[in-house]
Amino acid sequence: MANASTRQIASVDRYANALFQLAKEAKVLETVSSELLNLKKILNEDDTLLSMVKNPSISKSNKFNFFNSLSEKIEMSKLAKNFIGVIINKNRINYLMDIINSFEKLMSGLKGEMSATITSAKVLKEEELKHIKDKLKDKFSSEFNINTIVDETLIGGLKIQVGSQMIDSSIKNQLQTLKEKMKEVA
Predict the structure, then answer these.
(1) 154-180: average pLDDT
(2) Cβ-contact 100, 76 below 8 angstroms
(3) From CA 117, how far away is CA 98, in angstroms rounded?
(4) Separation between Cα atoms, residue 26 and residue 83, nearest integer Å
(5) Which pLDDT score, from 0 to 100, does residue 1 have?
(6) Distance between CA atoms of 64 and 49, rounded to whole angstroms?
(7) Which of 99, 123, 125, 171 could pair with 155 in a Cys bridge, judged by C-beta atoms 3.0 to 4.6 Å apart?
(8) How far apart are CA 100 and CA 102, in angstroms?
(9) Which domains can be identified in the chain, with CATH numbers?
(10) Which strand ranges, in their side-by-side order, compose the sheet holding 165-168?
(11) 0.90 cut: is pTM over it?
(12) Mean residue pLDDT across the chain
């Protein structure tokens, strides 16, 4: 039997794939993709919005109202707006960011791009992201779609994941390595 996280990933991928196929058939893939990226940016910029979206004590109708008003404000297409309605109705709105990330991976695959997840202790500046993206492009000879995660426990440095490869230059990892070496000596 699959565990909860495996089921969650499968569910996220199913929703992302369904939206991808619908957008492809309607010939609005780029539009839906940019709308989802815009929505992701808005939700990432305001922690209270994201926590409201994930809060189980807030009713479906309030979440519908919030997303209806937001979708009008950012001029979201009917397809994207209806999709958000479906995931609210199916109690999957907590997975919205994961669904958007999965959709982005499908778009990257279509464009022949690779995906990389960069985890840092602080929000990276555009110049820093561009520099990292250029280095990845040189190393892998491919364009990259970058997802960023802020994890203050890293203290400093970066973790970059491309497929199954992990580059971990975080201070947290360096301290952990030093701790292990000190245990060996003792």
Answers:
(1) 91
(2) no
(3) 13
(4) 14
(5) 40
(6) 13
(7) 171
(8) 5
(9) 4-108 (1.10.520.20), 113-185 (no CATH)
(10) 144-150, 114-120, 158-162, 165-168
(11) no
(12) 90
Q: Is the pLDDT of residue 6 over 80?
A: no
Q: What is the pLDDT of residue 5?
A: 66
Q: What is the mean pLDDT of residues 52-75?
A: 92
Taking CA atoms, 153 is separated from 18, 71, 93, 150, in Å, by: 35, 34, 27, 9
The beta-carbon contacts of 135-143 under 8 Å, at least 24 apart in sequence, are 136/160, 136/162, 140/114, 142/112, 142/113, 142/114, 143/111, 143/112, 143/113, 143/114
Give per-residue burial for 85-112: e unless 16+ CB within 10 Å, then b: bebbeeebbebbbbbbbbbbbbbbeeee
Please, what sign has the CA dihedral across residues 152, 154, 155, 159?
negative
pLDDT for 163 beyond 90? no
